[in-house]
Amino acid sequence: MFTALFALLALPCVLRLVRLDYVRLGHRVRNGDLAELLLVVAMVAMLSPVGGPIPAAGWQAVLVLTAGWFAWSAWRGRAEGHGCAHHALSAAAMLYMVTAMPHDGMGHGPWLTMSTMDTRLAWPVVAIAAAAYFAADAVRSGVVAMRSRGTTVPGHASRTLCRAVMGAGMGVMLLAGI
Questions:
Q1: Predicted TM-score of the model (pTM)
Q2: Interhelix angle for 156-176 vs 124-147, to 10°?
Q3: What one-character-per-residue DSSP string does 87-109 give?
Q4: Average pLDDT of 167-173?
Q5: CA gap 98, 158 in Å, rounded
Q6: Which of 11, 29, 42, 74 could pair with 85 as two cysteines, CB 3.0-4.6 Å apart?
Q7: Quick check: 159 pLDDT over 80?
Q8: Cα 62 from chain centre
Q9: For residue 56, what are the CA distances in angstroms to 2, 102, 110, 115, 135?
Q10: Angle between the 27-47 and 56-76 helix axes, to the nearest 10 degrees?
Q11: Torsion of the alpha carbons at 28, 150, 166 and 59, rounded to the nearest 10
């Protein structure tokens, strides 16, 4: 079920990337939409019973680069860095999930297969803290999405609704892993 939900979240991300005028909206909005798509694809790969075409080490490298990029962007543009900080935290939480998944058995090899995991994530306190952040952010984003339904900013309602669903899903997956 979660695999399908996250796969569906890829559609609005792709549609925004294809349809929106990023010259007018700015590179931060485009980078945020690209980050959302990357994180959605990573969650689909992690939750798919088949695993993903990229081994866990590949996702770890991608997520380290994503978290670093957005952390640097948030620090550099502190006045408008809230979205960048959120994407850095999201990538770091996903990096935690990939890294804290047990990799000792040959049951899944190097592939991400959280859906068939029979043991728990390491460092449950990190999972609980991240889940609390994503739950609070999902509620806040849901409220913003509902309030901005009639806004003229292209893609804003779609972006905040996707953020709310993605945050809630990440929170559930983090708690399910402990």
A1: 0.86
A2: 160
A3: HHHHHHHHHHHHHHS--SSSSST
A4: 92
A5: 27
A6: 74
A7: yes
A8: 12
A9: 19, 11, 6, 14, 26
A10: 150
A11: -30
Backbone angles phi, psi at 80, to 5 degrees: -125, 25
Cα–Cα distance measured from residue 101 to residue 93, given in angstroms and rounded to the nearest whole number: 12
The alpha helices in the chain, defined as continuous H runs, are: 2-19, 22-25, 27-47, 56-76, 82-100, 124-147, 156-176
Q: Please report where in the chains the tokens 């592939």 appear, as a residue.
A: 111
Instruction: Indicate the average pLDDT of the chain.
Output: 83
Q: Which of 38, 33, 9 is nearest to 21 (CA)?
A: 33
- Token code pair at residue 88: 């850095």
Q: What would the pLDDT profile of 56-65 be if each residue is shown by its tens digit?
A: 888 899 999 9
Amino acid at 144: V
Q: Amino acid letter at 125?
A: V
Q: Which token pair is 122?
A: 């390491």
Residues 49/114, Cβ–Cβ less than 8 Å: no
